[in-house]
Amino acid sequence: MEGWDLLAHGLGGPADLPIPPELAIAGAVAALVVSFTILAVAWRSPRYDAATSGRPAPAWLAGVVDHPAYGVALRVVGLLGFGWFCLAAVLGRDLLTNPVFGMFYVWWWVGLVPASVLLGPVWKTISPVRSLNAGFARLTGSDPDRGLVDYPDRLGHWPAAVGLYAFVWIELVYPFSTELGPVRLWVAAYVAAMLLGGAVFGSTFYERADPFEVYSSLCAKLSPWGRRDGDLVVRSPLANLDTVTPRAGLVAVVGVLFGSTAFDSFRDSLEWIRFTQASTVSTVLLDNLALLAFCAGVTLLLAGGAAATGVGPDVRRRELPNLLAHSIVPIIVGYIVAHYVNYFVEVGWDTLVLASDPLSNGANWLGTGDLDRITWLSSHPTFLASLKVVAVVIGHVVAAVAAHDRAVRILPRHHQVTGQLPMLAVMVCFTAGGLYLLFAA
Question: Carries keyword tRNA processing (predicted)?
Fold first, then answer.
């Protein structure tokens, strides 16, 4: 198919901005600093409380969402989608026109973000590994929510961080990422690990260790949908974000998510391309080192900035990074929107077209094979470039609000402004660095 390129993320660059990139970066940093100043003056007590925030969802909506048939229907949708993927992966041809690559890299990875922000934790609802685990449990007469042993608290989200890194590694640096064999192997390893973990630790394993459920659930904290004492409620996204549970490994999760997206921009920059072409060291090795450096760098910068924040009498310094890590979620979502919006819309639509022919034999089983391509965003680069800046700025401003509300809860009153300065410095670095990388590609 003409224009099909899974690696072509960067449409809309510095030349397409209505203002110079330097001015855009300066304006974004200024917006963040001004927001912090206003918050310091006008927001002096915490406003979000998971125990009281939100109002009950309409009765008819709660009735639909909480009905067992609704959950079963979504499980069936998830299993059907997984079955279609397996059909194309096992019986399809090893061509870029195989919809497996779009389903894997676009629908699953990028699509989870808008789906979760709009609808809530969708992967928890449609996850085929959860459904398969429940099916196996019923066959053996066991409870899918209970495993053989309790999930260790010390593991927290560390397995999810490792799983997310494994995904971005195959997507961004593995040289054979668009060959069918490695994708099949990756998915098989993921399914096997999830089924084994679910059998041993029960459903808690999926909540804390499934990389895609953790990813989806974090993004869903920016949705208006939440739960309070098991009941469906409608909350502001900021109030919902405040309900993120601090756990071991949470900082590593957000570090991988943000760092890998930043690296995806960096690897397309002219400076990096020139460097790798001139170097005598393998480009694959350099990319591996750079990806690790970006993910580790973001993690350490966030952990250092949070740990340097002032502490109150009830909080230990080592707890601060996980307590403040939730504030980076809006930055992650904003940057993913900025970096992948055209990729998701255009290549995601192409995947829908290709999905009608999973065996690459000219079939049109879903009736989508004759749909026209969508190219509107790439045809309007100025709009696209402006959208990228807006997404990044909004993400950072929302992050500043979330961090400030948490800080005024845990910091002593006399230290509520000065104690936040290290985190403000970190966010300024993320803002300037993120925009620079976004438009350097």
Answer: no
- Report the greatest alpha carbon distance in the chain: 70
Domain assignment of residue 290, yes or no? yes
- Provide the residue type at 416 as one letter: Q
pLDDT tens track for 298-337: 999 999 999 988 776 677 888 899 999 999 999 999 999 9
Range of the domain at 224: 14-440
Count how many residues are written for the chain.
441
Q: In total, how many domains does the chain have?
A: 1
Structural domain includes residue 4: no
Distance CA 53, CA 46 (A): 12
The answer to whether residue 9 is domain-embedded is: no
Task: Please check whether residue 176 is in contact with residue 268, taking contact to mean a CB–CB distance below 8 angstroms.
Answer: no
Residue 318: C-alpha distances to residues 204, 307, 315, 322 (Å)? 25, 6, 9, 8
In terms of Cβ atoms closer than 10 Å to its own Cβ (0-12, 13-18, 19+), residue 58 is exposed
Q: Tell me if 206 sits within 8 A of 194, measured CB to CB.
A: yes
In the three-class reduction of DSSP (H, G, I as helix; E, B as strand; rest coil), residue 202 is classed as: coil
The encoded tokens of residue 394 equal 């909004």
Question: Whole-model pTM?
Answer: 0.94
Say how far apart CA 273 and CA 278 lie, in whole Å.
Answer: 9
Q: Is residue 432 assigned to a domain?
A: yes
